[in-house]
Amino acid sequence: MNKYLIAIMVVLGLSGCIRAGDYDVFPIRKSLISSIRGYAIHNFDSETNTGTTNVRENELTMNKALTVKKGEAVISDKFYDKTSFEKTAFMPNTNGTLQSIAPTKLVANKLYDIDKWVKIDGVKYYLLPETTDGAYYLFDDNGIFYEHEGIERDGSLQILEDDIFIYPANLKMNKIVKSRDEISNVRNGYEAKYAGAELDRIWFDYLTYDGSDSSGKFERISFPNKPGLITINGKGLRVIKADDDKLTFMILKNED
Question: Is 12 exposed, middle or buried (0-12, 13-18, 19+ CB in 10 A)?
Answer without folding.
Answer: exposed
